[in-house]
Amino acid sequence: MDKKELQNLLEQVAGGQVKPEDALLQIKTEPYKEMGFAKLDTHRGIRQGMAEVIYGAGKTKEQILKIAQAMVEEREKTVLITRMSKEAAEYVGASLDLHYDDLSRTGIVGQIPKPDGVGKIVVATGGTSDMPVAEEAALTAQVYGNEVVRLYDVGVAGMHRLMDHIEDIMSARVIVAIAGMEGALASVIGGMADCPVIAVPTSVGYGANFGGLSALLSMLNSCASGISVVNIDNGFGAGYLASMINHLEGRKE
Amino acid sequence: MDKKELQNLLEQVAGGQVKPEDALLQIKTEPYKEMGFAKLDTHRGIRQGMAEVIYGAGKTKEQILKIAQAMVEEREKTVLITRMSKEAAEYVGASLDLHYDDLSRTGIVGQIPKPDGVGKIVVATGGTSDMPVAEEAALTAQVYGNEVVRLYDVGVAGMHRLMDHIEDIMSARVIVAIAGMEGALASVIGGMADCPVIAVPTSVGYGANFGGLSALLSMLNSCASGISVVNIDNGFGAGYLASMINHLEGRKE
Amino acid sequence: MDKKELQNLLEQVAGGQVKPEDALLQIKTEPYKEMGFAKLDTHRGIRQGMAEVIYGAGKTKEQILKIAQAMVEEREKTVLITRMSKEAAEYVGASLDLHYDDLSRTGIVGQIPKPDGVGKIVVATGGTSDMPVAEEAALTAQVYGNEVVRLYDVGVAGMHRLMDHIEDIMSARVIVAIAGMEGALASVIGGMADCPVIAVPTSVGYGANFGGLSALLSMLNSCASGISVVNIDNGFGAGYLASMINHLEGRKE
Amino acid sequence: MDKKELQNLLEQVAGGQVKPEDALLQIKTEPYKEMGFAKLDTHRGIRQGMAEVIYGAGKTKEQILKIAQAMVEEREKTVLITRMSKEAAEYVGASLDLHYDDLSRTGIVGQIPKPDGVGKIVVATGGTSDMPVAEEAALTAQVYGNEVVRLYDVGVAGMHRLMDHIEDIMSARVIVAIAGMEGALASVIGGMADCPVIAVPTSVGYGANFGGLSALLSMLNSCASGISVVNIDNGFGAGYLASMINHLEGRKE
Amino acid sequence: MDKKELQNLLEQVAGGQVKPEDALLQIKTEPYKEMGFAKLDTHRGIRQGMAEVIYGAGKTKEQILKIAQAMVEEREKTVLITRMSKEAAEYVGASLDLHYDDLSRTGIVGQIPKPDGVGKIVVATGGTSDMPVAEEAALTAQVYGNEVVRLYDVGVAGMHRLMDHIEDIMSARVIVAIAGMEGALASVIGGMADCPVIAVPTSVGYGANFGGLSALLSMLNSCASGISVVNIDNGFGAGYLASMINHLEGRKE
Amino acid sequence: MDKKELQNLLEQVAGGQVKPEDALLQIKTEPYKEMGFAKLDTHRGIRQGMAEVIYGAGKTKEQILKIAQAMVEEREKTVLITRMSKEAAEYVGASLDLHYDDLSRTGIVGQIPKPDGVGKIVVATGGTSDMPVAEEAALTAQVYGNEVVRLYDVGVAGMHRLMDHIEDIMSARVIVAIAGMEGALASVIGGMADCPVIAVPTSVGYGANFGGLSALLSMLNSCASGISVVNIDNGFGAGYLASMINHLEGRKE
Amino acid sequence: MDKKELQNLLEQVAGGQVKPEDALLQIKTEPYKEMGFAKLDTHRGIRQGMAEVIYGAGKTKEQILKIAQAMVEEREKTVLITRMSKEAAEYVGASLDLHYDDLSRTGIVGQIPKPDGVGKIVVATGGTSDMPVAEEAALTAQVYGNEVVRLYDVGVAGMHRLMDHIEDIMSARVIVAIAGMEGALASVIGGMADCPVIAVPTSVGYGANFGGLSALLSMLNSCASGISVVNIDNGFGAGYLASMINHLEGRKE
Amino acid sequence: MDKKELQNLLEQVAGGQVKPEDALLQIKTEPYKEMGFAKLDTHRGIRQGMAEVIYGAGKTKEQILKIAQAMVEEREKTVLITRMSKEAAEYVGASLDLHYDDLSRTGIVGQIPKPDGVGKIVVATGGTSDMPVAEEAALTAQVYGNEVVRLYDVGVAGMHRLMDHIEDIMSARVIVAIAGMEGALASVIGGMADCPVIAVPTSVGYGANFGGLSALLSMLNSCASGISVVNIDNGFGAGYLASMINHLEGRKE
């Protein structure tokens, strides 16, 4: 409500066309209404670039199919479905052209787009058991248009394997480092790379890992720089953020 | 010797201006740590771009002065000193040209460089008491060559203040969102912006905030996308990562 | 025998319609627990206004039916059954006129009374997965005689949806704000509304939400005023308290 | 300009006593934050009814004085200053008419207004050591225009003392129950009263109370109904919410 | 061989009824564990007074039967089996005279002995859902020869019910107070009684009770005196300790 | 209010001598009032046997003196003051005949009474640093009339020292086992003794003892029988409970 | 790259045989590559002495068989498979010569080698329910060539049983002490033995053991010397480390 | 008491020389007494090899001097004093020949013995701020007769520095790996070395390191083999255990 509109309103009050209490409500709520919200909500309907996403956990297979069909009809884009049960995949796959990844329980309706990011995203894991989270991150990044280099099972207990891929690490634009247990991979990669590192703690492990807490704390306390952390097992969040960073354009000249 | 300097040296060798044996000496006298490893360790001696950094906590004023002097003499770059006591600042300031910021306890020796990042970094806080952490982040970003927009005290309990700055939020290249207590600022900003958001939980608050745990968990669980989290009160880490992202160049054509 | 019934009885004694010895018998046959103690214990047998409640968790279907039948026979009031399994609902429904809500696993025997509260209760959720808890709160409020406005999936990651309902927020007498993950909804609503806000953390989420702890701490640390918190997933408690506040009468003139 | 003042202004416009252009000027000179946003942010500048509040923690005595003076000059209302050190009180008291309460470290500039709430607020504590938090709650409630009944040291280890005040409990409109250690007071009061109970855990105790965690968890898990909880030691928040509930008007006929 | 049996044996040696070498054999064939160490280990083979106990959790039905048969044959005493599945009960019941309590999953082989304790043990619970733990405690106490008074569902949310049994509380020799959720029952009883109170937190509840932690902390922090706490859900431990206290004899004159 | 009194009241209502609303209030509040509370509150004014107790923590020296003087004048009994600073001791000692124990910061006004318990109380500690808590327990027990045997520094890392006192352990009527760090002492003693063992975890230690949590959890999980636990560092509570058990009389013949 | 190689490289740059940018890459990545990593990663393919190990958890039976077959073919060594389900054991056993231990869910393909360690490894447990973890440790140690002495169910609640085996304790070269609940066994053994003690907390227990946390903290805080701790339930890790210590050779003369 | 002694005792009972009750006592207490405890308690009086140790924390300077003098007089060995304040060092140094290390607050009376261990102990730290704990470990190891190689500030954020010392890592007999923050050093070293690694988490760091918890959990969850963990900041314990392992002799031929 700009100065003029406010003046009009007040004159309508003075003229009796608008009641004071109605004007009161209008003035009180106006500022909120005029906010220009830029972005829709995540993980339930992101629509950036070319992909839509459905967070499958807690949804019935019928709900997933219905939402996916609506998205497909409306916009003909790729639809990413995370945390989707095998049963739901079979159900949805009967009606739509679905590619389903067992390991990460991720479904993709439509084509994975041609990569259009600036560089490459490296997705690295400490162990093989971190792969489900890694694939969720990698597929998310691919669906959002990124070239992804997978470095799996390169944890610090066998660091030579990580070293074999030093060029990938050194030439990445952004790295997603995924590890459970002691989560040291993020620090080690952060100590070598000079690009942003997104650390994903996983709940892989047992005993004093307390559902991923050990890796989470380890990553938050990393003494290497350029590292930030997302929620435990949040492969989607890491893949999405990595894509966002990989699509940042340079200076306009 | 950073990557660029090493490249220059090698080109001078190729061009005959520098003899191999002299280059050898130069490389070897800064063994390993100067050999082009992308990065030294954080918070104790990063040397990317034009700045050096000293992590002041746990160091005596004499130690800080000595390290700073060595850095200044050797390379004549800007030196950033974080977590520096007022007493140390006075001691160092007697010998070196130090600018000291009381609030964040940050010292800077030398000139803050002209910004050379791609866009602007917004540093936002929920309340005035988060400002010490915010200034550590903002000064770090400035020292690494970034233009910084400060939006302080724009927490969700008075969201109209945040809305007054919606253009800053929408046009940032990267945002550092700093909040204690319930840490909701990161989610709200993450729900509006479409650039990477680095969330910094602070230990500000009392009772069930448990030294920053409430804000930390809140930020990790944010349902907005594009958010990642650094350690509680880690303004430096956020500023450094923001600078790294803000200096990412676009595609080479 | 509730407060009102006891008062009626005593007035009938005073008026001569009921003999003291008959009143004595009536009072004594419901020893202590029926004697006007303001309230029986919660979640197992509240009898305020017109509703009875049975906390279904941990009870067999036979127990639930038996208790419900006794309540129905004795007083012919509405009976609310929370945390009731589908199996129990089918069993009870065979003998009694039961309305069962799958989502919140809440059963209602008898009619939902006509609202007699002072204003409206807004029940808002951050996401769709918070709806089971929200429906428990909303149905509880309805059974206790309140008009309920449901605002579901208005979380901070898509704040425009919340803004679309700003009039509901601004005109509510009491708001129940339900959210899992980072629990920011309570703070955002608390920052806009000027009525009491009852925050309900939910266990929705994964990883570092630690069964609802993240939302709980976030809500307890809210820097907005007028907010208080109930137990994780405690929709009943929030609906009951909201009803209590909504039935507070104004000053007697 | 609070809600009531804005309403008055609009009615004067409607009635012709104030010209629209003058009203426009008045509204615009207090841009946004004075425009009827239901509420400013808590603990740093609430202006509902007749009081202003300054959250003293983390502010210098000079800052407190300056803010208080601005408030006093501008509006001549009562100013409440919470978490104020004795030293700050002496400094502010030299320039302003300050009443300072040592126990709760609360300062009040100006007169405590005549109570205008609907009923009485009972503030009860488990022990004498909970009194600082209780006085913060009680003084907050008084400053916002409430009649307060103090029941201190009525904890469950000596329940006869609580019983001596059963009439106060039964006739309260809202109760603030404050306790450290095992926090049982809230449940016991909640089991007796039939009005809303705001529970405040305190950090009083030692050993396994873990800074108030024991009382917090106890209160959140209370099996009595009508109870909600605020942050540990948050007397202000409880007093403010109690006042809000106590000022709720009844139905408009 | 308990202390008494060893004494008898030695007296028979002294009196010539038993030859030293026979006594030697008898003592040595039950090496160490039978030699008068006051007590064997708990929950797996206590033999005080007249009962044996088998901790059923983690044992197969075959193992339980085998151990129970050995105990029965050898000594013809009562055998208590805790945490015994229904299936195991049916299996054991086919071979031995077993009384099985469904609620607490406790089995008893043989007769419950006539009470020979000094006074009565009161076992009180906050709610009906604490009854499984309570029955484990009560049956344990009975098997060890105690008269038990059960006061179930007398929690603080409906304190009148507790009050109906004030004489039982006041005349008990030792009280076992069992409660989940906020665990206030122990404090309230501890504030009334002047005998030892053994508090048993239960894992009953949901949300922020964190598997019994809320009740545990509450009980440990009780400000009433004469209270001590055993592990969460440890009905056996409480019943055993209560029996031990109830069998303490007075001074010998 | 018994049947007769209620009948009288109702007849007075019928006769018009008592108004229905007055009768209502009388009936509602009576049951609470008629409770015969047996005991005053702990740690602030216990008056069992011959001692009074003042919990010194959080009280000024003037308050302590005033309370102590009132107690002395009124009843001429022994007064126990726990958690009393040296400064307060000097202040109180100037006016009253005070014995002050530096180690446990316990003060005693008046004579320690002649022991009149049934047996002996053993107070055992794992290390010398647990002695402050132990002395609080031991002095409390002595003040309440018990003979105390002190076994200090008999922790499991040097078990021979514990073994040297096996007779004391075997002949105690009740044992207070005090230990920090791993808290194993309680289990070891519980495995040897056949009397009640009250375990007191202490906050002694560093690192992962987390303020006594390690010893607390260890003691709660003890697999020995007859053990119960009080709060961390709660020497008073243990001494009081031990005295209560030691004064239990045997059967009356 | 030693001094000479670097000199050569630089001369090749000077001579034009190597381009500066190639030299740059070679210098940057070389140091990592030349590391002589000594050991592969644990629990997924250790190859020290004569055994291979497969961590079975999270692997399908087909994967386990395939890995095991490859190992057997390649090297003809013993293969240890930990955390292997019964179902997987049956599947693998159909193709390979597998010995499967039900209790610890450990499979062994091939012969257990003749012990070649320096001394004996004692594996002791507090209770019978700790035996699965103990057998994992013991079988691991045997597979790596150690003589193992099993002392099961020697917990502190019945310490005489531990004492029966004092000679084993005193003559061990290294002891693995395994206990759940209060974890006191490690301290007691550590107080008696003068060899390294590896403590393994187990998740055995209930209530406040919090999945092994109680035993873990207890063991970390042990006041006995020579003790170190591995992860909860990590029998393999303890057995492996014990073997490593037991194979340390003495001084070479 | 062996078989023969027991036989003698029984014959004395038979012969009347020993009363049955005396025999009873003798039999009951004997087994505990005859234990040959091998070792005194740690950290308060270890006497293995040539050194004595005093744990200085919580002891007055006078106590420390007195204990140290007694040790020196009695045995003329080296005395190690850990956690000793500077003030205490000055006081003790006035009477005894004390070497005091400021950094680790460790004092040594007498000569550090000539190393007599089998190999070398490497003490490595992640950062310079871990050095106090490292020096406690290193000096402890030296006092017990070990050759120590110090590798300080070789954390994973600058791994080249660790690589410079790969030979030390590879040739150590036992390694003490000390790190705060994310504690990754232990895993990285554990992944390279093939000797036992003792990990020491330190409380160095801030925010979500929670007093060392992050490093502790990280180390416990290490996926490298051969690692075990001691308490946070427990340099002494690590040094002692390292010495124990380094003094293990090889097989006797």
TrEMBL record, chains A, B, C, D, E, F, G, H:
SMART domains: AIRC (SM01001). This is Nickel pincer cofactor biosynthesis protein LarB. It holds the Pfam family AIRC. Residues 119-251 form the PurE domain. It comes from Blautia hansenii. InterPro entries: P2CMN_synthase_LarB, PurE_dom.
